Amino acid sequence: MKLTAKARYAVTALADIAAFGDDGPVALSDIAARQVISATFLEQLFAKLRKAGLVESRRGANGGYVLTAAPTQIRVSDIVRAVDEPIRTTACQPGEHIGCAGTTARCLTHDLWDELGRHIDVFLSSVTLADITGKKVLGRAMVGEPVEALEVAK
User: Fold this and answer.
1) What value does the mean pLDDT take over residues 45-56?
2) Is pLDDT at 147 greater than 50 in this prediction?
3) Does residue 127 fall inside a structural domain?
4) Which of 35, 79, 124, 142 has the highest Cβ tally under 10 A?
């Protein structure tokens, strides 16, 4: 399982605006230079981000992009969904009657991977751009007590 480049770059680009956009619109060329992302690729992503209502463009000599909400209000999950990149942890297609193995049955580990997907979604929904720029992401995934090692029967 891997987060797509579209999703990673979209989150990175909006975090860049959150970090550097206090003085006004941020140009895509500046984001591209700071984050080492193709400006052409950013243009494609920002069309989707604009359509989703996460950013607005400003024209003119000092033009660029601004966030439409405070960084505390924009969740990573919103950004990932805006670029049409769902994070899939199972092989079966949502809403289809075909199971993981190409039959109507689910594979033996389907529930494990499905639950992992839910945890990823909950985690990404809990992290905002402000958390990223404020370096408050580490430790968020720690839930409950550590699991003790189990003895395995031989």
Assistant:
1) 98
2) no
3) yes
4) 79
pLDDT computed for residue 71 by the predictor? 97
Residue 97 inside a domain? The answer is yes
* CATH code for the domain of 48: 1.10.10.10
The residues near 120 (Cβ < 8 Å, ≥ 6 apart) are: 87, 89
pLDDT tens, 102-129?
Answer: 666 777 788 888 888 888 889 999 999 9
Residue 62, token pair as written in the block: 């000092």
Residue 103: its pLDDT value, please? 66
Please tell me the distance from the alpha carbon of residue 114 to that of residue 117, in angstroms, as a whole number.
5
Residue 96: what residue type?
E
Q: Residue 145: which H helix or E strand, with range?
A: none
Cβ distance 11 to 76 under 8 Å?
A: yes
Q: Is residue 128 a contact partner of residue 75, using CB atoms and an 8 Å limit?
A: yes
In the structure encoding, which two tokens stand for residue 149, read together? Answer: 């090692």
User: Residue 127's domain spans which residues?
Assistant: 5-133
Q: For residue 55, give the H/E element and its range.
A: strand 55-58
Instruction: Mark 45-75 as b/e (b = at least 16 C-beta within 10 Å).
Output: bbebbeebebbeeeeeeeebbebeeebeebb
